[in-house]
Amino acid sequence: MTATIEPEVGKSRRRKEDDRLITGRTRWTDNITLPGMLHMAILRSPFAHAKIVSIDTSAAKSASGVVAVFTAKDLDPDSSIGMPCAWPITPDMKTPRRPVLAADQVNFAGEGVAVVVARTSAEAHDALEEIDVEYDELPVILDMEAAIADGAPLVHEDQGSNTSAVWKFDSAEAGTGGNVEDAISSSEIVVKRRFRQQRLIPAFMEPRACVVDPTGTQITMWSATQIPHILRVMSALTLGIPEHKLRVIAPDVGGGFGGKIGVLPEEMMSLLVAQKLGKPVKWNESRSETMLAAHHGRDQIQDITISANADGTVTGLKVELLANLGAYNGLVGTGVPILGAFMFNAIYKIPAYHFACTNVYTTTTLTDAYRGAGRPEATFAIERIMDELADELGLDPLELREKNWIKHEEFPFTTVCGLTYDSGNYEAATEKAKQLFDYDGLRAEQEKRRRAGDKVQLGIGISTFTEMCGLAPSRVLGSLDYGAGGWEHAAIRMLPTGKVEVITGASAHGQGHETAWSQIVADQLGIAFEDIEVIHGDTQSSHKGMDTYGSRSLVVGGIAIVKAAEKVVAKAKPIAAHLLECAEDDLEFAGGKFTVKGTGTSTTMGDIALAVFAAHNLPDGVEPSLDSDATFDPENFSYPHGTHLCAAEVDTETGRVKLRSYVCVDDIGVAVNPLIVEGQVHGGLAQGIAQALFEGTVHDESGTLTTGTFADYLLPSAADLPSFTTDRTETPSTTNPLGAKGVGEAGTIASTPAVVNAVIDAVRAFGVNDIEMPLTPMRVWHAIQHGTTDAGGPGNEAGGGLGSIDATGGAL
């Protein structure tokens, strides 16, 4: 065993897991084949809202290869099984039961009504055509405002309302700031806008899938999930399976972005069907099924009021949201707007703040966490309204931001929401971004183009952001009625030959955990990077964990690994002292060696591991084991930040938008692996830019999703995006020993407002102050021609939206 010579943390190592992932030498869930395995297919409702009059499955039961056909009454004869919601945000929150299969009524197009099990997947899908379902259509509810109007038809009659819950925060009532109405009424400048966060579909690479094997003494489920540990607990609670009799494995998972954070009806169906038949069952969805029936993201109407003095000092912020839950409550979707509630104030010293959110049911696919989960929505609103305020005041948007942001010497800073930002330096990140971007030069070019009446106008977009990530601490989550904690677990096993196995409760789905965790342990124990194996995603080998979402893996799971490594060293120290015949206080540990101070006498962690294995010569009363585990519950969230600058060229004759340059400087504290950081930022930028310019769902008047394939739901390719200029500043976190902050969501959070602000900046001279996303050529052209894309929002005379124009096409 050779000790690591130079530090691993901070080194740009290529991901060790890519060797199998990129070459295909791994097993995704759909690759798993078991003896006697059957295949499951789901019949989905073509209607968004309808009573189920009858279901005739007789022809399907006699179809080729079919083993069984199940309806709701077959799977759940007592109609008692309902999908879980882990976040009751208010005591009176409505929670309509979401059945595993619809029994009497369907509430969105794509809801499952029957299951076919056959010997092959093709036979199962063919037999779906033989099922005859008679529906009695009900009124469709798509518009959030119409849904909560008096006399509106109800998604769920037994709930009495389409309002799920109303959640509020007021700084005056909380004692964290002033009264916002007083601030607004006494201010010299008041700007009101309505912004629309369109509905998005998580486009992970691997569709959802699961395989259930009930044939042993323990049920084993493989699932393409982000949350194997939570899935196990929730499955046990939902179906009454003894938890110790259920093993959940998340094998290599091809992406998630929050889209695989749910506990799914399909997983519950697979468990029920496999148990009924006593045979292994596989379910694997098509891409169209993913887009139709997996959860969606975003979908908010944001009414924003900001007040300021004439010099640009912000005095108050008022936020009123409508959030579309879809037809049911997701696992955590009810609380996604609440995560955003604490981020509308962003990096600014806002003295008075009021937030109110109304969660609304509609006859659409449910919404839940999507990359950033509430934080992108909040950042978009505050960064857009800051640009609008700057225009009203005649100030440079960066000047206005600098006037109001928290200065680096003011950290730690307690915000108007009561959160304490531990560290940051917005000045340094912004200054570096301006230099890389050539901000002053582009402003000069912009002015020159405007004077010349150039048909291609240049816009400059700004987005400064921070986020609360690393979902924790548990006591704070408990105060928000979240159904779980924010801790994470890790264990380290020292093998006799000096090699190391690291067990983590954080379940990777493409983030590079195996590489980053190996780097952390290499530095902590002085073990070579190559001699470390990371084990994850299996509730049998990794028995305890809270899984992966919310940029929590490193700042919670990584710190649990550090704590476990510290315990290994502590266990090794008395053994080293015994072997070296010295007092423990005479030892120092560095680079994987215990050395007697002032001498060259030492022993390595590998030597100690072998001595422990033999157990021939250990101190009295010392157990022969170095293995250690730790559970880490952080004292605070992680608060990365950054400045993103975008230059966009807009052809005023066609509405075509071209991103000319994009610069971002992020501060994520100490970076464990800068190469992984770069990949996370690039991927995040692509998703955020896609929301600004490309992506968005469209439903027709009957509630049918008309953007249910990639032919209609537009995703950008590499050819549609610019080369990004990325850099970092570093203000270490003060709340964890690595000094790290989250990075997984940063690019997505910051990039959407940067791009939209750039486009609006380019066409503001035409009387446009907002365009509803995605900013397609048609929408941009329409705004230029009419000086508006009126969404009918109060206080937003140049609002957003195109009424009946719902074009989503148009490449860069």
UniProtKB/TrEMBL annotation:
Renumbered residue ranges of the record's region Disordered: 789-812
Keywords, A to Z?
Molybdenum, Oxidoreductase
Bias category Gly residues: which stretches? 790-803
Tell me which Gene3D superfamilies the record gives.
Answer: Aldehyde oxidase/xanthine dehydrogenase, a/b hammerhead, Aldehyde oxidase/xanthine dehydrogenase, molybdopterin binding domain
- Give a yes or no for keyword Secreted in this entry: no
Q: Which residues form a coiled coil?
A: none
Aldehyde oxidase/xanthine dehydrogenase a/b hammerhead domain segment(s)? 23-139
Protein name as catalogued = Molybdopterin cofactor-binding domain-containing protein
